[in-house]
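Hi support team,

I'm opening this ticket because the web form for multi-chain structure prediction keeps timing out on my end. I have pasted the exact lines I submitted so you can reproduce it. The total is 243 residues across two entries, so I didn't expect it to be a heavy job. Is there a limit I'm missing, or should I split the entries? Thanks in advance, R.K.
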Amino acid sequence: MAQKITPTDVMLAVYGSPHQTELITTALRLTQALLDRGARVQIWTCGDATGLTRSTLGRTKPRNVLRWTTDYPSSASVISDLLDEYPDLLHWYVCRFCSDERGMSEQIPQVRRRPPFTFWDHTKSAGKLLTLGVC
Amino acid sequence: MTEHLLIESGGPSAGQGCERFVEDALHLARSGRSTSLFLVDNAVTAAVRGAMPVLDRFVGEGGELMVDSVAVRQRALEPGDFVAAARIVEMDDVASMILAADTRVVWH
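Hello R.K., no limit was hit. The queue was backed up. Here is the completed structure from your submission:
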């Protein structure tokens, strides 16, 4: 049975590779700003961006030898916290094909993996769609 | 009236795509449409004086030029480094524009 898609004001399709540019940081900043205004937001990640929420990242990044006692949150941790903070406003979807292809099928529990052919249905459920980055 | 918000993230160092996207914004503004251009990430360097003359033409046609405050600070740029018409804005300002019902948005 087809899963119901929650309508949102804005959908961000995030295609960019996580560490190549500032794209992911900017996408998260925009997401936070939209949520702070009470907007309903859905994120769809494709390509390498599906790795942002893989569960194997854990809560923190590897220890920084220059700041031994400081914990730096992983992208999975940042996104997990954001989803916990806005459970009714923010929805995070991960392209199943892209994550499977990259060996990143294990995702944090708050995100939903979706088959790529449902992307169209998600775009129709959003008031506005922005596509960020290139696969 | 429909507002057009164009968001450029690549900047001059990413190739010709940035300038062509700004030219798209110029054409929209020239045709009388209300057009704003938001420069974020590396694209803020396009608004440094002399870096991209087409931006002056865009502003001359009535376009609104905005640059991202965080990207500006990350690059140690100062307000005086930019073309006079550039306005430094917060992401919250952009979110507000995106959510406006009559705004069309394109991210490049």
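A quick check on our side: The first helix of chain B runs from residue 17 to 30. Let us know if the file doesn't open in your viewer.
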